[in-house]
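Page 37, continued from 36.
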């Protein structure tokens, strides 16, 4: 049986959920934030080590300004309201992405919650905000190149491990399972390097309707999958016998 240590979640479908109810898209985002809160608690209770939530992509900056502003407001409100609960639930928070592009008060809220939860030892919760994996890879290449330039590294020392260590998700392990709601089957610039051997689950459920029960069903399905990492099925069976 597999053990899921890290779940990546592409929370998609808020707009369509609201549209189905003839409501503004913002209504879907509010409901989506509630779902996020429930799923975070569920993952914490289930003893999952890492949860990475895709909250706002680099490309989402292209949305109408009013929607961008609303999403920033919602994130800030979530962090202010949830800081204490996160500590109570022993959840360690951090954000990845181009934080410098965010409004100053949101950056402050992120800093405060990160500090408040830094000693928590339960679920490691990562919000990907203003995050794009291609940008993350570019930054990693820049950092590595600069170390080579300063003679802190040789070209031969550049390895898969070293590149992973320069990704923003470090030191979290790669995601075992990436879930995307709303029926879209794409990564939309999420964890491109880290998802090389992730299992994927695409569900038609719109994010505001996503539930703990569905998450458990997805994890149960994940547990029964055979992860071969390039090897053959008999090899995997043999390894399991030895272990
Ligand atoms: C996901 O829902 C939330 C964010 C991307 C911030 P969407 O807003 O993308 O909802 P749809 O895809 O338009 O339904
Ligand atoms: C991806 O959703 C980003 C988040 C869930 C935050 P989008 O709805 O922005 O993705 P695309 O643009 O349709 O691929
Ligand atoms: Mg979408």
């Amino acid at each position: 049986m597999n053990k899921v240590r890290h779940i990546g979640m592409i929370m998609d479908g808020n707009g369509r959920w609201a549209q189905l109810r003839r409501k503004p898209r913002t209504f879907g985002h509010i409901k989506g934030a509630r779902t996020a809160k429930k799923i975070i608690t569920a993952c914490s209770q289930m003893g999952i080590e890492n949860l990475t939530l895709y909250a706002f992509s680099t490309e989402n900056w292209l949305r109408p300004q009013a929607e961008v502003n609303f999403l920033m407001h919602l994130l800030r409100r979530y962090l202010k309201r949830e800081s204490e609960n996160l500590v109570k639930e022993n959840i360690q928070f951090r954000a990845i992405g181009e934080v410098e592009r965010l409004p100053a008060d949101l950056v402050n809220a992120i800093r405060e919650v990160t500090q408040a939860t830094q000693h928590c030892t339960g679920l490691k919760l990562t919000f990907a905000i203003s995050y794009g994996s291609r940008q993350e890879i570019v930054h990693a290449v820049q950092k590595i190149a600069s170390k080579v330039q300063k003679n802190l590294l040789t070209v031969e020392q550049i390895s898969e491990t070293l590149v992973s260590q320069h990704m923003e998700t470090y030191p979290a392990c790669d995601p075992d399972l990436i879930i995307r709601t709303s029926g879209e089957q794409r990564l939309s610039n999420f964890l491109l390097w880290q998802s090389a051997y992730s299992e994927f689950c695409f569900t038609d459920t719109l994010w505001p309707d996503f539930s703990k029960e569905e998450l458990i069903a997805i994890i149960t399905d994940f547990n029964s999958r055979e992860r071969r990492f390039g090897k053959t099925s008999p090899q995997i069976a043999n390894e399991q016998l030895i272990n």
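The beta strands are 6-10, 50-57, 92-96, 124-131, 177-180, 199-202. Flag for discussion at group meeting. Residues 12 surround magnesium ion (ligand 3) (CB under 6 Å).
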